[in-house]
Amino acid sequence: MTGIDVLRDDVSLDAPTLVEGLPGVGLVGKLAADHLAETFEMVHYANVHCEGLPPVTTYEDGDRELVTPVRLYADPERNLLALRSDVPVSPGAALEFASCLESWYDDGEVTPIYLSGIGRGRAEEESPGLYGVGTGAGSDRLAEVGIDSPDESGLVSGPTGALLNHAVRTGRTAVGLIVESTPQFPDPEAAAHLVEDGIGPLLGFAVPVDDLIDHAEEIRQAKRRLARQMQEADETSSQARPLGMYQ
Description:
Keywords: Proteasome
InterPro entries: Proteasome_assmbl_chaperone_2, PSMG2_sf
Structural class: alpha/beta
Largest sheet: 8 strands, mixed
Number of domains: 1
Helix content: 25-40%
Number of helices: 7
Low-confidence stretches: none
Region (Disordered): 227-247
GO cellular component, one term: proteasome complex
Protein name: Proteasome assembly chaperone family protein
CATH class: Alpha Beta
Strand order of the largest sheet: 1-3-4-5-2-6-9-7
CATH topology: Rossmann fold
Shape: globular
């Protein structure tokens, strides 16, 4: 079976916003989506069985129940979905994964927010840069909430790049948020900036980020193994990068 297996028929959503959290540079997307799901106590809404995903299963601390590595969580009160992933999506499967996921979007009129880090070092006290890109009405929405446009040319690669590419090809509304993040390690501070100044304004409500900031070092330690896996398979990682002067 491929596609999206909805587990909660009792959850009602009306044209929801989906926040994508695939692993990538600084793990900013994963950290942001996980934070939303945990902060708002979102329910496990669906399993993702798209072709190309690794044939593995995962389990969580204190819970015997096995789950798929890629899952959707829902908050009907806020009309919100979060895509959580414990594994990277391989480059060869990225377009197929994007097509599988977005074919389900069409049934529920989902507006996606895609997340990516761009590898940049910064001083400890320096706030990471954040900017937005979009297709369809997504660009207008970014302008409405005051999220900056890019200040240089660039591209988004990996599975998040494939999802954005699919949105361009199909003419659907989508938003992409790109935040400067440390490429070598998980970057909770960049994820907090992404949530507070990017995702929150787009959703129309504030999202507390104190836990991400207060437990930054603990989060880094917990996520280092996944971050190393992403570095070993650089082309698998969702990331934004500048194109440079000559394109």
